[in-house]
Amino acid sequence: MIKRIISAAxxxxxxxxxxxxxxxxxxxxxxxxxxTISYIEWSSFNxxxxxxxxxxxxxxxxxxxxxxSNEHTFIVxxxxxxxxxxxxxxxxxxxxxxxxxxLFGGILYVSLYMFFVKIMQLSDGRLLFLIxxxxxxxxxxxxxxxxxxxxxxxxxxxxxxxxxYEGAICGVIFGTIFALLFGYFVxxxxxxxxxxxxxANIAGIFGDLAESVIKRVYNKxxxxxxxxxxxxxxxxxxxxAFSAFIVYLMLIWKIF
Length: 256
What we know:
It contains ten helices and two strands.
């Protein structure tokens, strides 16, 4: 717990300052670095010999997602997919083919990080993304402590045995309340702040469980130990990745 608190005390201020003040070229490079680390963690679950070639492909695709137009990104994705298919032609082995599709899927999964930047590029986007992040952080903390204190009903026992409905509900409630308070103090429309907090914390539950499925399949507790007390990049960003994607769609489609 001490390591967890110290890591959070060091990293959260750095993240907040970066979100509010860093130029977009720096943010894109930062997300590219974080995405590459996350993909390395993903690929380490199933370390077939082609793993390092897929890491190279992931860096190419992440770079295109962050720095090129949507049209060019689609072209790069098709090239990456064709190369992935060619890798599978050399030997028809069911387990190898499944492993290669797992590695290709990881490239798409980690590419969800692109929506961090896409949200920040919207009007008041930096504040909106900070509300999203803070809401997730608060929601995760309350989900952990409430679940540990009085959680009884298992949320998804076969996937993540320690998660409970009580913890999840507490996380959504307090994450949403914090989003409202944050929105009030930074003069963001309260209706928008409410739905960012609510939607982000609901989506975050599924993002967390999605990564837990992968870890359960490969019998891993954490994706790595790069962040003391917190595990790996995937462990820290699973909720945020799903949430950012859903919230971005909500914002550009003006659903609320």
